[in-house]
Specification:
heterodimer, A: seven-stranded antiparallel beta sheet, six-stranded mixed beta sheet, 15 strands, about 20% helix, elongated, B: mainly beta, 1 helix, 6 strands, disordered N terminus
């Protein structure tokens, strides 16, 4: 979305250095929100969400002209004290896909898993943990479960990744460039809780794959199979 | 530093990176801490000589990924903790 800054926030933006000529990349909390998000601020007064729709909004500003968009944008209140400049060095490590690229690869938009509410597994949905390592440390092979604080993707998203010949390193925004070799299959029980979301851009990768976070891990005997990446059995 | 602990690889970004296998006690510590994303954790490291390395990636709770120019001996690590702000 595109917003207009309130005067107080504009003053804050202007007190911070620019990220590039005419713009700043900042992190801030929307008023009443607890999570900091990233935004691009133009000329200290026009604010654009820095998410997977950023290029769409950027093009809109170019098309309609800056003054027109500024005139029509609705003001949005931020917690002025939460506003900080996002480090440029980290910015260079992130990229986003165009809408067409995302559609072709069935990538998704949305918040990361830990920002979403917890849900119970339905006892039927299979989750897959991808790894470069056969001895993945987050699987308890003895008790056949996922240990607490571990991430997976869904089997459906994994299948999309394989069928569409997508790059799992980019899809799940992984920091290592070693190839993903292994897929660990988990069928959580209905008492197991998870948070579901979308892998955020990081490490020079676009993300957009589904991620599921199991804060408390899964029940015993829920890990049932290890396969080579991309193999059906 | 023992050579078997060191694996050098070239990332797709073209920069040289090293992976260092952590000590078992450090691996045990990390296995009990939550992941930052699938297969990795972002950590801050303090060495016994006082040097601090922030926002380092640990893969599979056992391989610390550092830049080629950096020197970290796992035996010289005083503390490892999860980086608070994630990525």
């Amino acid at each position: 979305m595109i917003y207009k800054a309130y005067t107080l926030d504009t003053q804050k933006f202007l007190s911070l250095p620019e990220t590039g000529m005419g713009y700043q990349v900042i992190e801030a909390k929307r008023s009443g929100d607890t999570v900091k998000e990233k935004f691009v601020v133009y000329n200290g007064e026009l604010i654009v969400d820095l998410d997977n729709r950023f290029h769409e909004f950027k093009n809109l500003i170019k098309e309609l002209s800056f003054p027109k968009v500024l005139n029509e944008a609705k003001p949005w209140l931020f917690e002025t004290s939460s506003i900080s400049l996002f480090p440029k060095t980290l910015l260079l490590e992130k990229r986003v896909l165009s809408e067409n690229e995302k559609k072709d690869k069935r990538r998704h938009s949305g918040r990361g898993a830990i920002e979403n509410p917890k849900e119970f597994a339905n006892g039927k949905e299979v989750f897959v943990r991808l790894s470069a390592y056969e001895n993945d440390r987050r699987i308890d092979f003895e008790k056949k479960r996922l240990i607490k604080g571990s991430y997976t993707t869904t089997n459906l998203d994994y299948l999309d990744c394989v069928k569409l010949r997508d790059d799992p390193i980019d899809r799940y925004a992984l920091p290592n460039d070693e190839p993903v070799e292994w897929a660990f299959y988990i069928l959580p029980e209905t008492k197991d809780q998870l948070q579901r979301g979308v892998a955020q851009p990081a490490f020079g990768h676009a993300g957009g794959g589904i991620e599921a976070y199991f804060e408390n891990g899964t029940s015993d005997n829920t890990y049932f199979e290890k396969r080579q990446y991309g193999k059906e059995n | 530093m023992r050579m078997e602990l060191l694996i050098i690889l070239t990332s797709k970004k073209g920069s040289m990176e090293k992976k260092i296998k952590l000590l078992q006690k450090q691996i045990d510590l990390l296995v009990n801490l939550p992941e930052t994303g699938m297969g990795y954790q972002i950590v801050d490291i303090k060495l016994k000589d006082g040097r601090i390395f922030n926002r380092k990636v640990v893969l599979n709770s056992m391989y610390l990924q550092i830049e080629d120019k950096e020197k970290i001996d796992p035996n010289e690590i005083e503390a490892i903790k999860l980086h608070k702000k994630g990525i």
